[in-house]
Amino acid sequence: PAALPLAPLGFTDVNLNSRNTYEVSRRRSAPEHLPHGGTAPAEPAPPPQEPAERARHRVGIAGAGSSFAEFFTRNFFTKRTKELKPAVQSAPGWKLFGKVPPRENLPKDSKIIQQEYEARTGRMYKPPPPSARRKNIEFEPLSTTALILEDRPANLPAKSVEEALRHRQEYDEMVAEAKKREIKEAHKRKKIMRERFKQEENIASAMVIWVNEILPNWEGMRATRRVRELWWQGLPPSVRGKVWSLAVGNELNITPELYEIFLSRAKERWKSFSETNSENDIEDAGASVADREASLELIKLDISRTFPSLYIFQKGGPYHDLLHSVLGAYTCYRPDVGYVQGMSFIAAVLILNLEEADAFIAFANLLNKPCQLAFFRVDHSMMLKYFAAFEVFFEENLPKLFLHFKSYSLTPDIYLIDWIFTLYSKSLPLDLACRVWDVFCRDGEEFLFRTGLGILRLYEDILLQMDFIHIAQFLTKLPEDITSEKLFSCIAAIQMQNSNKKWAQVFASLMKDNKEGDKNHSPAPKT
Amino acid sequence: RSFSFKVVLLGEGCVGKTSLVLRYCENKFNDKHITTLQASFLTKKLNIGGKRVNLAIWDTAGQERFHALGPIYYRDSNGAILVYDITDEDSFQKVKNWVKELRKMLGNEICLCIVGNKIDLEKERHVSVQEAEMYAESVGAKHYHTSAKQNKGIEELFLDLCKRMIETAQVDERARGNGSSQSGIARRGVQIIDDEPQVQSSGGCCSSG
Q1: Residue B14: pLDDT band with limits 50, 70, 90
Q2: Which of A127, A309, A370, B51 has the fewest C-beta atoms under 10 angstroms from its C-beta?
Q3: Residue ranges of region Disordered (chain B) (predicted)?
Q4: How many interchain CB pairs under 8 A, A with B?
Q5: What is the pLDDT of residue A413?
Q6: CB of B208 within 8 Å of any CB in chain A?
Q7: ipTM for the complex?
Q8: Hey, is the C-beta of B197 within 8 angstroms of any chain A C-beta?
Q9: Regarding the domain delimited by A376-516, which CATH topology (the fold level of the hierarchy) does it fall under?
């Protein structure tokens, strides 16, 4: 069997098909359609008998190439994400970049074209149901094929020979131009697809390694160099929750049963809360109860404000109750911490990756880490120490930007609070945030601050041009097109070493300094 | 000539601070916006009687737990907008707490606005208009009613605040010209060029660090 390289073959296929369909279209627009089909592309509305798609081609070509390109891209990506499988089965030979077995692809002959043609003409008289139409969009020719040079209608005076010749020439140029563009775009798309396939393959092979080798020998392998490197690449989504759970651990020894107990307590409280609410306020309930009730109310409000664009945590969404349960159970489990805004994002990310009870266990243990406790208790003096440690590495890694920030008295609390509270899940695109979580689970709190420095490094040039308010604005609302490759290469370039001291040592020495300096340090005002 | 002012929004969670600023700066209203944790920052340029004004608006988190972080956000503010929800008596009490704290920390130079938001829910009002207005007057603040949802009263609120901040800045400047200024005042009117190092403000927990 001739093992043809898949890439060039697929590409030829595109051209081949487009030309063939082009011929078909030409045939279709031959004499019997002349009375109405032979008009110039600029004609406002197509005659009603014509299939809408054809009309669209003409408008697309005559009007703007971009609209057609958009249309095509949209169609292309829908197919990729949703119809990958059915497309392979249903489209003999007409494949753009899908993995079509070469053998099926090669004998693409006039017979198939004929079938295709018949299928199309058959639809001309009764418009197909919307679903069938959509399917057929896959057979759409590229724009070159839809550009048709028609003779002038018979009721108008004929063109002169020179004019006809010139038009012919212009037409050829346009087609050649469009074809060139299409070839370029096809190349680009194919490259993207190749990268995606490669990525998917990497994930698939990584998944096998995680499932078969690493997870069964977790304790022995988690710290090995090979596993750490694989970990850095990002965890395959199918093992992500499992690895997070293992890495976060369960120091608190929470069991699913314990979760159920706290959940039922939370449910009782919600019930009594709504009852007292209807009876109106009871004054002697005391401030702590009022606070707790406010906290319960706040959970409700915050749930609807957690990843609002996903529409899965909002009321009526599939994970609304789950998120409510996990957060409610936590406030009963840890009344000393209670619900703090920002927690809903952490719980939401865990729920997206773990079963309910496991999500709760990971949530409670995660929030029990020193850094998270300091932030969620809003222990301001501890937070300042974390910021101070961050600034040590900031100055070390990005001295120019550090000075720039200093000149505006722009302190880390302006941008770090959001990042640390939600572990970047509010600030970065969700998939990227999950990758940050992956390595956070591997490296601990230091990685949160390293990520922050990575972000600053990624945008260093832009930030150096900005003043205080624009930096603050930029960092609290990061660009949405931030990619994981770029960010992770910037994070990788951040050295968490300061004159041979690592994060933990720098932080420890700051703690010691501050203890000594506490005597002449006035406490934070409380109101 | 131009002025740059910093305005901070404070108030309990879910009274509509973010909605108010989003309506003002971007003319948007959305029921489903995201929780504010730390401050978020918006800017707006105005022209008031030939004077250019650059506003930097700091929108803050509302949860009581974050109260301790307040000084980070309100230090050096020229104006503060203290928002409550007219259907929620508690949120009005929180405004009173903020007024006390701001007066204590920033003195009388900061222009205070007390804003009863959500007047589209007038039927569910729990805070009396008279009480709110009387309170505002007693603490030297101005009182406003707004609806971010229906876009009522917001332009007026910010315009009025800007005019007051310009006045305060000009008074400051004159006082400064007379040589009787204090560093604490001079620092705030940003249009005045700092000729002394940024002395840490008169209070606030981050001041001594």
Answers
A1: confident
A2: A309
A3: 173-209
A4: 100
A5: 92
A6: yes
A7: 0.77
A8: no
A9: Cyclin A; domain 1 (1.10.472)
Q: Which two tokens stand for residue A109?
A: 């002959």
Chain B residues touching residue A298 (CB < 8 angstroms):
13-14, 63
Chain A contacts in chain B segment 96-135 (CB below 8 A): 97, 100-101, 105
Residue B130 has pLDDT above 70, yes or no: yes
Least CB-CB distance to B209: which of A308, A384, A418?
A384
pLDDT, tens digit, 9 for 90 and up, residues A67-105: 444 444 444 443 334 333 443 344 333 333 433 344 444
Most A CBs within 10 A among B8, B33, B41, hence the mutation to make, goes to B41
The residue written with tokens 């009782």 in the block is A268
B139-148: average pLDDT: 96
- Percent of chain B past pLDDT 70, that is, above it, reads 81
3-state secondary structure labels for all residues of A23-88: HHHHHHCCHHHHHHHCCCCCCCCCCCCCCHHHHHHHHHHHHCHHHHHHHHHHHHHHHHHHCHHHHH
- Angstrom distance (rounded) from CA A24 to CA A191: 29
Q: Where are the domains of chain A?
A: 164-233, 251-274+292-368, 376-516
- Identify the top-confidence range among A100-104, A276-280, A383-387, A518-522: A383-387
Give Dmax (Cα) for chain B.
53
Which residues partner with B11 through β-bridges? B83
On whether any CB of chain A is under 8 Å from the CB of B63, the answer is yes
Q: Domain A251-274+292-368 class?
A: mainly alpha
Question: Quick one: average pLDDT of B75-79?
Answer: 94
Q: Which domains does chain B have, with CATH numbers?
A: 2-172 (3.40.50.300)
| pLDDT for B180 beyond 70 | no
* Local structure of A201: helix, strand or coil: helix
Q: Choose, out of B22, B37, B104, the residue to mutate when testing the contact with A (most A CBs < 10 Å).
A: B37
pLDDT at A273: 73
Among chain A residues, the shortest Cα distance to B14 is held by: A301
Closest CA to B178 of B186, B189, B166, B187: B186
Q: Is this structure's pTM higher than 0.90?
A: no
CA distances to A327, A370, A428, A440 from A446, in Å: 26, 12, 18, 8
